[in-house]
């Protein structure tokens, strides 16, 4: 079967067959996305298999998926800005539009050479975020490509790095916690200047003498899970329909024990009135 834009929708109807179809279309990824800002700062190479974004004094750049979907899994291999990346932020996230938007974020906060990036995650539902968890990566994210994934299902959201789950946000609407499950989202990715807060809370500014700053992207894959969400997707390592398997749970504990540097769920100073309800039971 030809790999066309229709594959995305045909796949939804065919259910499980979709995974392999979408996989076979992943090389055509950049046909499914568009550079949306930054002009020449966004570039596509290798017949559409590699994309770079850059940032200079005048502007950053970004791209987004042409399609939106309600539940899905997105994967992207990213090689972050190397050298002195302080003040820069690279993003890879899902978002809906409008004032009460939903959003599921990966943000990579740069640093001076040799000091660690921060891998920042957040979940917005109906316009409200404030659910940050941050990690130091266990590798140098600027030397090689690493895979970052968001699994968004009606039951939960899972953040993964190189297929290792690092965070689970469970649907706890029963406890009154809003969960993003009504608004379709698009994938967005960008590189921009945020030296007012990104590095050591804004203390370290972008060194423009090192510009342009460049990050690289490849192997984007969007798997629509809207109809097949009850069937186990073949590509979901460690992910079961109700959450993680035992091995996946071990890995989340490993990542959180050794690499988590901030968790809103333990920030009592920030929530003097009491921690948000979703923080009470789950350790994640
Ligand atoms: C940058 O390095 C400093 C010093 O090691 C560290 O405190 C900080 O968390 C690192 N990351 C960012 C994004 O500020």
TrEMBL record:
| Domain annotation GH16: ranges | 4-217
What's its EC?
2.4.1.207
Q: Which CDD domains match?
A: GH16_XET
Chief site of localization: secreted
Membrane-crossing ranges are 7-30
Q: What GO molecular function annotation could you give as one example from this UniProt entry?
A: xyloglucan:xyloglucosyl transferase activity
Which of this chain's residues carry glycans?
111
Q: Which residues form the active site?
A: 103, 107
Post-translational modifications: Contains at least one intrachain disulfide bond essential for its enzymatic activity.
Quote the cellular component terms of the Gene Ontology held in the record.
Answer: apoplast
- A GO biological process held by the record: xyloglucan metabolic process
> Where is it localised?
Secreted, Cell wall; Secreted, Extracellular space, Apoplast
Please name the InterPro entries in this protein's record: Beta-glucanase-like, Beta-glucanase/XTH, ConA-like_dom_sf, GH16_AS, XET_C, XTH
Q: Which domain of life is it from?
A: Eukaryota
Q: Which UniProt keywords apply?
A: Apoplast, Cell wall, Cell wall biogenesis/degradation, Disulfide bond, Glycoprotein, Glycosidase, Hydrolase, Membrane, Secreted, Signal, Transferase, Transmembrane, Transmembrane helix
The similarity comment for this entry is: Belongs to the glycosyl hydrolase 16 family.
Q: What does this protein do?
A: Catalyzes xyloglucan endohydrolysis (XEH) and/or endotransglycosylation (XET). Cleaves and religates xyloglucan polymers, an essential constituent of the primary cell wall, and thereby participates in cell wall construction of growing tissues.
Annotated protein name in UniProt: Xyloglucan endotransglucosylase/hydrolase
* Organism for this UniProt entry: Acacia crassicarpa (northern wattle)
Q: What is the lineage of its organism?
A: Eukaryota, Viridiplantae, Streptophyta, Embryophyta, Tracheophyta
């Amino acid at each position: 079967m030809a790999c066309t834009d229709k594959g995305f929708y045909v796949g939804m109807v065919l259910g499980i067959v979709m995974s392999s179809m979408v996989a076979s279309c992943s090389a055509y990824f950049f046909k499914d996305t568009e550079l949306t800002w930054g002009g020449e700062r966004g570039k596509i190479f290798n017949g559409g298999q590699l994309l770079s974004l850059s940032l200079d004094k005048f502007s950053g750049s970004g791209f987004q998926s042409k399609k939106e979907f309600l539940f899905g899994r997105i994967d992207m291999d990213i090689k972050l800005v190397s050298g002195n990346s302080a003040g820069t932020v690279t993003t890879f996230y899902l978002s809906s539009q409008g004032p009460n938007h939903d959003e599921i974020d990966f943000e990579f906060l740069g640093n001076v050479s040799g000091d660690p990036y921060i891998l920042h995650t957040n979940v917005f539902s109906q316009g409200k975020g404030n659910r940050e968890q941050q990690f130091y990566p266990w590798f140098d994210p600027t030397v090689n490509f690493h895979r970052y994934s968001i699994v968004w299902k009606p039951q939960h959201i899972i953040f993964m790095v190189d297929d290792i789950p690092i965070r689970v946000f469970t649907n706890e609407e029963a406890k009154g916690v809003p969960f993003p499950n009504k608004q379709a989202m698009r994938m967005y990715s960008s590189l921009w200047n945020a030296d007012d807060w990104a590095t050591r809370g804004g203390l370290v500014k972008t060194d423009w003498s090192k510009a342009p700053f460049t990050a690289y992207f490849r192997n984007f894959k969007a798997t629509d899970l809207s109809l097949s969400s009850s069937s186990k997707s073949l590509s979901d390592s460690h992910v079961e329909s109700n959450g993680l398997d035992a091995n996946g749970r071990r890995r989340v504990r490993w990542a959180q024990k050794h690499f988590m540097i901030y968790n809103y769920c333990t920030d009592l100073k920030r929530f003097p009135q009491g921690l948000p309800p979703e923080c009470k039971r789950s350790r994640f």
